[in-house]
UniProtKB/TrEMBL annotation:
Membrane spanning residue stretches: none
Name of the protein described by the UniProt record: Two component, sigma54 specific, transcriptional regulator, Fis family
Residues annotated as domain Response regulatory: 9-122
Gene3D superfamilies from the UniProt entry: 1.10.8.60, 3.40.50.2300, Homeodomain-like, P-loop containing nucleotide triphosphate hydrolases
Keywords: ATP-binding, DNA-binding, Nucleotide-binding, Phosphoprotein, Transcription, Transcription regulation
4-aspartylphosphate PTM sites in chain numbering: D57
Length: 459
């Protein structure tokens, strides 16, 4: 009776065959294994077939492990790569992690180390596959194709959209600025029984407070200076559809009371009018502020809050959406390359790694702006590399490092941002003379070179 095929395909890339043999011995019962003695032969195999896991030695004659890793990630970014490093080359293993490696093993390693790391990669593959199938269920529906994501964190959002859209209850979308709250509101409208009606969007912060009531509820002729005729408000205009109020936290208290009445009684009164007008709309509101804090400060009505948030939906920031930064960056690159008639097709893995580590406080809007600026400023070619990136957008130059806005970056990102600013400042002062810059920073030149590499600073 033939043996069952092993479902997991592993490639070992190392010029020392004994390393390949030791990994093969550890995984013989778990995987189908292949071996390549050089980076060049490994790439030939990788171009022919997909491997679930690659063990890749950093130090090899010919193509180095880091160079092979970059090319692997060009071919298929989803391939899991575990770097094999000697103890004295551990800093290169860390660099490999920034380029997209899953993990690294330091020589000498045990059979248990190999098995444990393989099981972790296998578990990740099963989880990714399961989440991908569930996301595909949503992405297969035409309404969802406007939202570009592969993040499992978005599954909860989509599930809530499906449940909430079927009803006519009010929905409150919360999330940071630039996360796509209006796009989500449009999705809710499309998935609802009101999809054939209008969706009317209004930004409450963009309209002067004295004009906002008229925008929302309309006005009668002569009700105020300049009211030369009757005007229909957004609530009437959106009849049998959806009205989306963005930045609802900016509403004045008196307008909050009128909005609450409209939601409770399902009717409005135009400015300067006396007639009650029935309305049939579904309200979706959005805010990037914590309404609970505004309620405590007396700036937002708690009864309105409860009316708005019958179904609350939290839209996670870009930095919390696993895998979406590379996906969106690549999408925007194609869009803007076409728009500006440039040849750009992709970012190098090191650029993708840099973008993936940046916290994007402005979220998708900031990423979109960043990619467009890159396309406009960079030399026209097929691949965008680190020298093409306008780093001043990610790390703005300031005279005093204390003015950096570190609050939301987290300690590691804040330290990296500060160190990069500090190093760049001295390099520019010394006209990129590394020896002189190192002397002024009171560190050894080799230390400076290592830190430049770790911080993606190229001379």
């Amino acid at each position: 009776m033939p043996a069952e095929p092993k479902p997991y395909d592993v490639l070992v890339v190392d010029d020392e065959k004994i390393v390949g043999e030791s990994i093969s011995a550890a995984l013989a019962d778990l995987c189908t294994l292949s071996w390549a003695g050089s980076g060049e032969s490994a790439l030939e195999l990788i171009e022919e077939r997909h491997f679930d896991l690659i063990f890749l030695d950093i130090s090899m004659p010919g193509l180095s492990g880091l160079e092979v890793l970059k090319r692997v990630k060009h071919l298929d970014y989803s391939m899991n790569v575990v770097m094999i490093s000697a103890i004295d080359r551990a800093h290169e293993a860390v660099e490999a992690m920034k380029l997209g490696a899953f993990d690294y093993l330091t020589k000498p390693f045990s059979k248990e180390d190999v098995v444990e790391i393989t099981k972790r990669v296998a578990g990740k593959r099963v989880l990714d596959s399961s989440l991908s199938l569930r996301l595909d269920e949503f992405k297969g529906r035409s309404d969802y194709q406007s939202i570009i994501t592969q993040a499992p964190e978005m599954l909860a959002v989509f599930s809530e959209v499906e449940k909430a859209a079927a009803s006519s209850c009010s929905i409150l979308i919360t999330g940071e600025s630039g996360t796509g709250k209006e796009l989500l509101a449009a999705l809710i409208h499309k998935r609802s029984p009101r999809a054939k009606g209008q969706m009317v969007a209004i930004n409450c912060a963009a309209i002067p407070a004295e004009l906002l009531e008229s925008e929302l509820f309309g006005h009668e002729k002569g009700s105020f200076t300049g009211a030369h005729s009757r005007k229909i408000g957004k609530f009437e205009f959106a009849s049998k559809g959806t009205i989306f109020l963005d930045e609802v936290a900016s509403l004045r208290i008196d307008l909050q009371a009128k909005l609450l009445r409209a939601l409770q009684e399902r009717k409005i009164t135009r400015v300067g009018g006396h007639e009650d007008i029935p309305i049939d709309v579904r309200l979706v509101a959005a805010t990037n502020e914590r309404l609970e804090s505004l309620i405590e400060a007396g700036k937002f009505r708690d009864d309105l809050y409860y009316r708005l948030s019958v179904v609350p939906i939290y839209l996670p920031p870009l930095r919390e959406r696993s895998g979406d930064i590379p996906l969106l960056a690549s999408h925007f690159l194609k869009v803007f390359a076409t728009e500006h008639k440039k040849r750009f097709k992709l970012f190098t893995p090191s650029v993708i790694s840099l973008l993936d580590r940046y916290p994007w406080p402005g979220n998708i809007r900031e990423l979109r702006n960043f990619v467009e600026r890159t396309v406009i400023l960079a030399e026209d070619k097929e691949v965008v590399d680190e020298p093409d990136i306008p780093f001043n957008l990610l790390f703005p130059e300031v005279e005093e490092p204390e003015t950096f806005r570190f609050e939301d970056r987290g300690l590691k990102l804040a330290m990296d941002a500060f160190e990069r600013h500090y190093v760049m400042k001295y390099l520019k002062k010394c006209r990129w003379n590394q020896s002189e810059a190192a002397r002024r920073m009171k560190i050894h030149r080799n230390t400076l070179v290592r830190r430049m590499r770790a911080l993606s600073i190229r001379p």
